[in-house]
Amino acid sequence: MSHSGDDDTIIQGAVPAEQVGDYDVASPESRTLVTVVGTILGALVLVGVFLLVSLAMRDTRVESQVIDLDGSAQVVLQATNADVRLVPGDGEDIRVRAEVDESLLSTDFELRRSGDAIAVAADCITWLSPGCGAEVTVEVPDGVPVEVTTTSGRAEVRDLETDVLVRTGSGDVVVGGKLATVSVTTGSGSVSSRDLDAVELKVVTGSGDVDAVLVEQPYALAVKTDSGDVEATLPDGERTYQVKTSSDDGDVTSDLEDDPDGEGLVSLQSDSGDVTLAVR
Q1: Where are the domains of the chain?
Q2: CA–CA distance from 102 to each of 119, 124, 192 (Å)?
Q3: Minimal CA–CA distance to 214: which of 247, 258, 246, 179?
Q4: Chain centroid to CA 207
Q5: What does the H/E/C string look like for the chain?
Q6: Which of 28, 121, 255, 266, CA to CA, is 20 to 30 A from 57?
Q7: Sign for the pseudo-dihedral over CA of 60, 63, 64, 69
């Protein structure tokens, strides 16, 4: 019996529609992979749309409050994740101005007096509401010492011409302008200054970097960090210093001459970071 060549001819080298190379696109594994990839891509698109809508709906409200010192000898500010900035103020009262950012989800902002302390809180879900939070500016009466504590919020202190104590968990710290004695402690936040004029600067960090530029010669500069880099720049002047620079596992460079009888003290130490001391 004869057969039509068109019916029975098998083209050599042809690949079935269900197979590409050595991969069977019709197999259960391939269908599962396509489903998983499609689900992930769909989720990413939804998240992207949500974030774009959240950014488009971003809004800022301003809250202000005047707080009487009421005989307190110092300003104590306790913040959680709010960013705080302390600047000189006029008069004898503390003036607080908060810019509260929120978008698709609201930011729960609270400012209250807690004993002798001013408590600030700004709670929001940052990964669902990008840009949310609060920036708080506190005007401090002239000559009143300041103590600031945050968990993850950034702290900035400028031109108060008084004693300053700052503690943060993971928030960065910026100090600048004319201050008296400055003490900063952070867990993992960095510490920086670009135009600091202070009698004394003491910094202790866990893993944060320290970059301090002083425009006037201090009496004392002491920095200790476990794993961060330390960079310090002092102006040239008549005051001489007892200088101690060290790192267990980092490079150490110093332009400042050590004077065992110097009236000032410079001590820069890091366990594993680099240490750099420059004189300009």
Answers
A1: 22-56, 58-143, 154-280
A2: 20, 8, 28
A3: 179
A4: 12
A5: CCCCHHHHCCCCCCCCCCEECCEECCCHHHHHHHHHHHHHHHHHHHHHHHHHHHHHCCEEEEEEEEECCCCCCCEEEEECCCEEEEEECCCCCEEEEEEEEECCCCCEEEEEEECCEEEEEEECCCCCCCCCEEEEEEEECCCCCEEEEECCCCEEEECCCCCEEEEECCCCEEEEEECCEEEEEECCCCEEEEEEECCEEEEEECCCCEEEEECCCCCEEEEEECCCCEEEEECCCCCCEEEEEEECCCCEEECCCECCCCCEEEEEEECCCCEEEEEC
A6: 121
A7: negative
Give residue 51's pLDDT: 61
- Give tens-digit pLDDT for 13-59: 444 545 545 555 556 766 677 777 778 887 777 666 656 655 566 68
Instruction: Give the integer Cα–Cα distance in Å for 235 and 223.
Output: 17
Q: For residues 191-203, give the mean pLDDT.
A: 96
> Could you give the count of Cα atoms lying within 13 Å of 280 in the half-sphere of its Cβ?
9
What is the rounded CA–CA span in Å between residue 268 and residue 104? 46
**CB atoms near residue 169 (< 10 Å):** 17
Highest mean pLDDT, choosing among 1-5, 117-121, 242-246: 242-246
How far apart CA 275 and CA 268 sit, in angstroms, is: 7
Locate 58 and state its tokens: 């971003």
Cβ atoms of residues 269 and 223 within 8 Å:
yes
